[in-house]
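Continuing the batch. This is chain 6 of the set; chains 1 through 5 are on the previous pages. Same settings as before, nothing changed between runs. Recording input and output for traceability.
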Amino acid sequence: MANHVQHPRNVYVAERDIVPALDNWLLKVFASHRLTETIRRLHATQHAAALARRDAATAAQAQASHRLTEDDIRRLVGSFDDLRTTLRDARSEDKSTEPFPT
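Output for chain 6:
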């Protein structure tokens, strides 16, 4: 029966319903006991992202010159303020996906 059911191409999910789940996920992947693995994964995905954005000729050059090291990522992640407190205390308006006013 699943093969004969038509599914919508888009699904609307209210921000208030998904942001708490995203916050919890971020807290888990950036938890201190998982930080090394998260940094390794972020480091490993750079290559795939570069290939998706560039053609094969420019991807190799961009990867070599713009790829972050694991230490670069560790410093970046380490520069976050207390992520748990920030996410917990942030107002929903501050988490909005709306662009900043000009």
